[in-house]
Amino acid sequence: MADEERFSLPPRFRKLPIHEKRRYLQELLELTDDELAATGCTDGNLELADVMVESAVGFMPVPLGITSGIRVDGKTLFIPMATEEPSVIAAAGYAGRLISMADGLRTSSDPPVMTAQIYLEGSEPGAVESVERYRAQLEAAVAPVLTSMSSRGGGLVDVGVETLSEPSLLRIHLYIDVRDAMGANILNSAAEASVGALERITGGKKVMAILSNSARRRRARAEFEIDVDRLARAGLSGSEMARRIELASRIAESDPNRAVTHNKGIMNGISALALATGNDTRGTEAAAHAFAARDGRYTSLSRYRSDGETLRGSVELPIALGSVGGAVGIHPVSSFSLKLLGDPNSTRLARTAAALGLAQNFAALLALVSEGIQSGHMRLHSERLAYRAGAREKEIRKLAKKVFESGSFNISTARRLLEELRKNYG
Ligand code: MEV
Predict the structure, then answer these.
(1) Which of 35, 318, 405, 424 has the most crowded Cβ, counting Cβ within 10 A?
(2) How far is it, in rounded angstroms, from Cα 307 to Cα 243?
(3) How far apart are CA 16 and CA 25, in angstroms?
(4) pTM attached to this predicted model
(5) Which residue from 250, 228, 253, 138 is spatially nearest to 191, judged by alpha carbons?
(6) Best of 249, 268, 301, 370 to mutate for ligand 1, by most ligand atoms within 8 A of CB?
(7) CB 364 near ligand 1, within 6 Å
(8) Ligand 1: distance of its center to the CA of 99 in Å?
């Protein structure tokens, strides 16, 4: 079959019921029933997929794990993490427990205030003052979409107006307390609802009205202190480890190329929690990286300093995670994850995320400045190779050990060792 035939889909494919789409794909791609089932589907999941996104054909299951033993603000938590990356969950747990043997992590956060942006062109002179003078009209225009948010203690908290010169536009910010939501829907609705009033007040015309994912007013922070003596490892004293961790922090603070990887490590934790709770991982990442570049130069989101006796670590970044609404409200894994966390509100969730991100980052630095990260990674990589080679159940661990000991991390070695293993154990 020619490629273009093989991959053409009927024009109304996206309108077919999900079961028909799947049957069609099964035939088209010549999938066995098992291969089709591996797209993560039970009947319930299929229905869910169909209401969550358009053109759904299945689910992409990502492993869900739990990191345990991290003490945050005096409470030991079980934190759900959804990630495809090996080592991440174990590393967060390791560092989290190390920090928790001391005082654990302390956290804080801002109220859940998000920003909606409205850009207008061609507004009359004095438009900034007009928006301020007729603010009541603006508030009345957005009030209907904010009724339920206001009844929960949220709603419009502030308005900002600014003229921009390049391109020449008027920019209005609506600052809205979104309570336990991530807020995208409410912000976009409020932004669009405000357009008519703003056009009347300013004489301008809307260019666009949309939330800002920067979440600059919705920051969360986490910090910890630990006696340097607890850090000794790989033949290095605790104070030498603390010195190296501070140095690693200073490198990430000053070198943007290193900061990207350093921050990626922080987001390994935060994004995994965002995904496990059904939150928008792209928005979470965008906010974090934009904040890291807030002064015009990309830098690290965390910081470590040692006085020779104590090492202090801290992190600060915008975290817009909802504990209600959107996919959070309907995805069963999200409900499970929130239950596991004790049904936190959005600020508690953001604080937990900041703590997890810092623990994740600390784990990476502990490894990087001592034995490196590859030995841990290669152990898990060996398990993946064992799985790919055909090992199942108890064989996986046994074969992974042999692959790791062989030092030859490729599929043919794994297959050969699996044959040997099966011969030896019958
Ligand atoms: C890997 O996913 C994350 C690290 O590269 C983070 C870091 O280098 O700090 C280990």
Answers:
(1) 318
(2) 9
(3) 12
(4) 0.90
(5) 138
(6) 268
(7) yes
(8) 19
